[in-house]
Structure to design on (186 residues):
Protein backbone atom coordinates (compact mmCIF):
# COMPACT_ATOMS: atom_id res chain seq x y z
CA UNK A 1 0.00 0.00 0.00
CA UNK A 2 2.75 2.38 0.78
CA UNK A 3 4.18 1.66 -2.64
CA UNK A 4 0.89 2.61 -4.30
CA UNK A 5 0.91 5.99 -2.51
CA UNK A 6 4.41 6.73 -3.74
CA UNK A 7 3.48 5.85 -7.32
CA UNK A 8 1.75 9.23 -7.87
CA UNK A 9 4.65 11.03 -6.24
CA UNK A 10 7.03 9.21 -8.65
CA UNK A 11 5.06 10.43 -11.66
CA UNK A 12 5.14 14.01 -10.36
CA UNK A 13 8.88 13.75 -9.70
CA UNK A 14 9.45 12.29 -13.20
CA UNK A 15 7.44 15.13 -14.79
CA UNK A 16 9.33 17.71 -12.70
CA UNK A 17 12.66 16.39 -14.03
CA UNK A 18 11.70 15.66 -17.66
CA UNK A 19 9.73 18.87 -18.42
CA UNK A 20 12.58 21.33 -17.63
CA UNK A 21 15.02 19.09 -19.49
CA UNK A 22 12.81 19.20 -22.61
CA UNK A 23 12.43 22.97 -22.24
CA UNK A 24 16.21 23.41 -22.02
CA UNK A 25 16.76 21.26 -25.10
CA UNK A 26 14.18 23.23 -27.12
CA UNK A 27 15.65 26.58 -26.00
CA UNK A 28 19.15 25.39 -26.99
CA UNK A 29 17.80 24.38 -30.40
CA UNK A 30 16.15 27.80 -30.84
CA UNK A 31 19.36 29.60 -29.85
CA UNK A 32 21.39 27.52 -32.30
CA UNK A 33 18.81 28.16 -35.02
CA UNK A 34 19.05 31.92 -34.49
CA UNK A 35 22.87 31.73 -34.68
CA UNK A 36 22.61 29.81 -37.97
CA UNK A 37 20.21 32.44 -39.37
CA UNK A 38 22.62 35.21 -38.32
CA UNK A 39 25.47 33.42 -40.12
CA UNK A 40 23.30 32.97 -43.24
CA UNK A 41 22.42 36.69 -43.23
CA UNK A 42 26.11 37.54 -42.85
CA UNK A 43 26.89 35.31 -45.84
CA UNK A 44 24.21 37.04 -47.92
CA UNK A 45 25.56 40.48 -46.93
CA UNK A 46 29.09 39.33 -47.79
CA UNK A 47 27.92 38.12 -51.22
CA UNK A 48 26.26 41.49 -51.87
CA UNK A 49 29.43 43.28 -50.82
CA UNK A 50 31.51 41.01 -53.05
CA UNK A 51 29.19 41.69 -55.98
CA UNK A 52 29.42 45.45 -55.37
CA UNK A 53 33.21 45.28 -55.14
CA UNK A 54 33.44 43.21 -58.33
CA UNK A 55 31.33 45.81 -60.11
CA UNK A 56 33.58 48.56 -58.77
CA UNK A 57 36.72 46.69 -59.84
CA UNK A 58 35.31 46.05 -63.31
CA UNK A 59 34.37 49.69 -63.67
CA UNK A 60 37.80 50.85 -62.58
CA UNK A 61 39.44 48.29 -64.87
CA UNK A 62 37.44 49.65 -67.80
CA UNK A 63 38.15 53.28 -66.85
CA UNK A 64 41.00 53.60 -69.36
CA UNK A 65 38.75 52.34 -72.16
CA UNK A 66 35.95 54.69 -71.09
CA UNK A 67 38.35 57.64 -71.02
CA UNK A 68 39.64 56.68 -74.47
CA UNK A 69 36.08 56.55 -75.82
CA UNK A 70 35.29 59.87 -74.18
CA UNK A 71 38.35 61.47 -75.73
CA UNK A 72 37.83 59.94 -79.17
CA UNK A 73 34.08 59.99 -79.65
CA UNK A 74 31.90 61.19 -76.82
CA UNK A 75 33.81 64.32 -75.73
CA UNK A 76 31.89 64.60 -72.47
CA UNK A 77 33.02 67.10 -69.86
CA UNK A 78 31.86 68.38 -66.51
CA UNK A 79 29.35 71.22 -66.66
CA UNK A 80 30.77 74.72 -66.36
CA UNK A 81 29.12 77.50 -64.31
CA UNK A 82 28.49 79.64 -67.38
CA UNK A 83 26.20 76.92 -68.73
CA UNK A 84 23.71 77.73 -65.97
CA UNK A 85 24.19 81.43 -65.23
CA UNK A 86 25.52 84.21 -67.42
CA UNK A 87 27.71 85.58 -64.62
CA UNK A 88 27.94 86.68 -61.01
CA UNK A 89 25.34 89.38 -61.55
CA UNK A 90 22.81 86.78 -62.71
CA UNK A 91 23.55 84.67 -59.64
CA UNK A 92 23.14 87.69 -57.36
CA UNK A 93 19.80 88.57 -58.95
CA UNK A 94 18.48 85.03 -58.55
CA UNK A 95 15.23 85.06 -56.57
CA UNK A 96 14.56 81.93 -54.54
CA UNK A 97 10.91 81.10 -53.79
CA UNK A 98 9.67 81.57 -50.23
CA UNK A 99 9.15 78.51 -48.06
CA UNK A 100 5.85 76.79 -48.75
CA UNK A 101 5.40 78.55 -52.07
CA UNK A 102 4.51 76.32 -55.01
CA UNK A 103 7.47 75.71 -57.29
CA UNK A 104 7.26 74.95 -60.99
CA UNK A 105 9.92 73.66 -63.33
CA UNK A 106 11.19 76.23 -65.77
CA UNK A 107 12.72 75.80 -69.17
CA UNK A 108 16.48 76.08 -68.76
CA UNK A 109 18.23 77.56 -71.74
CA UNK A 110 21.99 77.13 -71.47
CA UNK A 111 23.91 80.38 -71.83
CA UNK A 112 26.29 80.76 -74.72
CA UNK A 113 24.45 78.69 -77.30
CA UNK A 114 24.61 80.09 -80.81
CA UNK A 115 21.39 81.30 -82.35
CA UNK A 116 19.79 78.85 -84.77
CA UNK A 117 20.41 79.66 -88.41
CA UNK A 118 17.50 81.32 -90.14
CA UNK A 119 16.28 79.65 -93.31
CA UNK A 120 17.38 81.51 -96.40
CA UNK A 121 16.03 81.56 -99.89
CA UNK A 122 18.45 81.38 -102.77
CA UNK A 123 18.29 84.06 -105.38
CA UNK A 124 19.70 83.92 -108.86
CA UNK A 125 23.37 84.80 -108.77
CA UNK A 126 24.19 87.71 -111.02
CA UNK A 127 27.97 87.51 -111.13
CA UNK A 128 30.38 84.60 -111.66
CA UNK A 129 32.22 85.55 -108.42
CA UNK A 130 29.00 85.14 -106.46
CA UNK A 131 28.43 81.80 -108.17
CA UNK A 132 31.93 80.65 -107.16
CA UNK A 133 31.29 81.76 -103.56
CA UNK A 134 27.99 79.87 -103.53
CA UNK A 135 29.70 76.79 -104.93
CA UNK A 136 32.35 76.97 -102.18
CA UNK A 137 29.62 77.29 -99.54
CA UNK A 138 27.82 74.24 -100.94
CA UNK A 139 31.06 72.24 -100.90
CA UNK A 140 31.68 73.28 -97.29
CA UNK A 141 28.15 72.21 -96.32
CA UNK A 142 28.61 68.85 -98.02
CA UNK A 143 31.97 68.40 -96.25
CA UNK A 144 30.34 69.14 -92.87
CA UNK A 145 27.57 66.63 -93.61
CA UNK A 146 30.12 63.96 -94.57
CA UNK A 147 32.13 64.64 -91.38
CA UNK A 148 28.96 64.38 -89.30
CA UNK A 149 28.11 61.05 -90.96
CA UNK A 150 31.66 59.81 -90.33
CA UNK A 151 31.36 60.81 -86.67
CA UNK A 152 28.08 58.91 -86.35
CA UNK A 153 29.69 55.88 -87.98
CA UNK A 154 32.57 56.07 -85.52
CA UNK A 155 30.14 56.27 -82.58
CA UNK A 156 28.29 53.22 -83.88
CA UNK A 157 31.59 51.35 -84.29
CA UNK A 158 32.53 52.14 -80.71
CA UNK A 159 29.12 50.94 -79.55
CA UNK A 160 29.58 47.72 -81.50
CA UNK A 161 32.98 47.06 -79.86
CA UNK A 162 31.12 45.70 -76.84
CA UNK A 163 29.58 42.97 -78.99
CA UNK A 164 32.98 41.50 -79.80
CA UNK A 165 34.46 41.77 -76.30
CA UNK A 166 32.86 38.61 -74.94
CA UNK A 167 32.77 35.33 -76.80
CA UNK A 168 29.71 33.09 -76.82
CA UNK A 169 31.50 30.67 -74.50
CA UNK A 170 32.21 33.41 -71.96
CA UNK A 171 28.61 34.60 -72.06
CA UNK A 172 27.45 31.00 -71.59
CA UNK A 173 29.75 30.64 -68.58
CA UNK A 174 28.35 33.85 -67.10
CA UNK A 175 24.77 32.69 -67.60
CA UNK A 176 25.43 29.27 -66.06
CA UNK A 177 27.20 30.78 -63.04
CA UNK A 178 24.32 33.22 -62.59
CA UNK A 179 21.87 30.32 -62.63
CA UNK A 180 23.96 28.42 -60.05
CA UNK A 181 24.12 31.49 -57.85
CA UNK A 182 20.37 32.04 -58.12
CA UNK A 183 19.73 28.40 -57.27
CA UNK A 184 22.06 28.57 -54.25
CA UNK A 185 20.23 31.65 -52.92
CA UNK A 186 16.89 29.84 -52.89
Amino acid sequence: MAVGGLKGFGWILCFAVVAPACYMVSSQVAAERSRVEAVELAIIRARKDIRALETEFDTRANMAQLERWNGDVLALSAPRPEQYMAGEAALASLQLPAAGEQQYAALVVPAGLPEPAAPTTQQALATPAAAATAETAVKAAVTRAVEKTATLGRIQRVAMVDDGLLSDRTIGDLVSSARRETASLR
The two ends are 63 Å apart (CA to CA). The first helix runs from residue 2 to 61.
